[in-house]
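Collaborator request, handled under Task 6.
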Amino acid sequence: MSIPPANQSNPLKNYPIIDELDDDIILTVKNISKLIKVHEETVRRWCRNGYVKTLSPFGAYKIRGIDFKNFVIQWYDIKDKHR
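Structure tokens returned to the collaborator:
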């Protein structure tokens, strides 16, 4: 993952467990649901709807660490804009 420019903060700094994930790690729906404490079906829905880039688009979703981080950054940015 690239370092954000000096004038931007790292949105993952509040989520050290996610920030420290290896970019090339392969995560399952179960891994992600436990990591961020959401229901597994929520993660599956994100995958089905294309919010999270997956390696296996038909059922047994696998997500690379970098793709999960990008999703979290996007999600964080969206939540921030609606506050």
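The cover message to the collaborator said: "Confidence is low (pLDDT under 50) at residues 1-7. The helical segments are 16-19, 29-36, 40-48, 65-81. Please let us know whether this matches your experimental observations."
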